[in-house]
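Sequence in, structure out. First:
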Amino acid sequence: MLRSALSALASALPAPVAEAHCDGPCGVYDPASARVAAEAVLSMTKKLKAMEAPAAGDAAALAAYNNTFGRYVAIKEEEAQKTKKELLILWTDYFKPDHLATFPDLHDTFWKAAKLCSACKVNIDQAKAEELMAAVEKIHGMFWQSKGRSDAWVTAS
């Protein structure tokens, strides 16, 4: 009785939403998505640092300033999180233990890059954003070397 009631209840409820990255064996990895996100972090950081608050008493200008500032911060934080996600996918899914022979600093490189993503989320620090770009570039080089190919480091900005 209880079992059939639970079964009827379970079948009446909608299925839970499942989310996952491509953890199937697609084999499609590329650090380019991390680079694009990291570039957005650097770009938003530069834009935030270049902003000048409006003169006191101009409510409309202050509202526009606050709106733009908030949007830049939101984008910076989202892109820093995207960068971290993309790097972690490369680190945990693409790179294998045998890569450590070629790249003995692999774990340290990824760990520091992930920490830089966090630093870029919580700060408006151009030096950290530039360090993040350098870390992503290093990972880009490791990735393509591991594939026996070279791919030029090209940035959009």
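Second:
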Amino acid sequence: MNATQMISKGLLGEPALLLGLIAFVGLLLQKQPFQRLIHGTIKTMLGYTLLQIGANAAGSSLSNLSAVIQKGFQIIGIIPHNETITALAQINYGEEIALIMLVGMIVHLMIARFTRIKYIFLTGHHMLFMASLLAGVLVSMSMPMWQVMVAGGIVLAFSMSLAPLITQPYIRRVTGNDDFAMGHFNSVGYVLSGFVASWFKKGPEPPESKGLQKLRSFFQDHMVVITVFTFVLFLFSGLFISPGGTREMFSGRHILVVSLIQATWFAGGCYVILAGVRMLLSEIVPAFKGIADQIVPGAIPALDCPVLFKFSPFAAMIGFLLSFTGGLAAMVVLLQVQYTVIIPGVIPHFFSGGAAGVIAYKIGGRKGLIVSSLIHGFAITLLPTVLIPLLSNLGYLRATFADSDFSVIGVLVHELFSWFK
């Protein structure tokens, strides 16, 4: 087991344990009774575990949808996927990644303790993704190990502090308070979504026609909406595959059956995500106050993006679909200019596009949701094209990072440190 694995497979690699420990310490500092200590710690861990279970179920369905789209439309290109490229980076740069994470966490806590930027980034896997990107970019510039460690750690620390800072004005408008911040490296995408949505004024909803009222009553439950939309998406994409191709991919099942099963899996995953988020927030936010009061006064926990879904599940679903549509438009543009084709990844568009959709809807209403989600999807699909040349120097020919911050920070770091070569 190398140094990266020791860190990533420890507390940082198990966010449920990390968050449970934080809840325990926070409640302990508040001198809560023993029963409350155990109750809060376990429910925090359970909440995050439910979120992971739901994300895995939804992600599995989305991976199958990606495969259906690729096979149906015969498109060959690069699908941004954080986990894949991070795994590749760890094979060659495990030690550098571990040292960058270590320095980054120390500097990040110092920033929270001694400056007015009081956000504590708690999304461990995104910390690992960013450290992997920084290691890859800095090593490709032939920097010695100690410079990679120091420079990468400082950039990681500031990224973890500044990402929640720039998104917080929009998160506050969604949640109505500063109980938590966004700890997810798609902050550029969220700011873009909120900025575009602010062009539209959220006024009173127009009166509904009788036909629309009947339709609305059918779709009153957002889980029904998610299931129906996903079913239609699967079925439509599957129609472009031969019957034999579908049976080969799904163990002989007909596309109709596959679409129904995958749609219910996806909706079930979303339901579990929302249940986990509600449980997690109800425990971690009050518990974190104990740490904030004693160790980092005024600190705000920065959490993963699905925490926004509960504020408008319907907007999250529509945001995902429109963001993905914007991504398809960007792919068509890339095909027309014969540039490297980025195939919009369904998973990043679901999580990042969903959270961006909630922000857009809460700020700009329906019009804001539609316009900003399309632009968001277009932007996060195009952005990886500027990062690919940097990663191709390392041999990562068909892999890249998905969310917007990785592209922006990767290019900025490369340009900045090129001056010192």
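Remark: The two ends are 33 Å apart (CA to CA).
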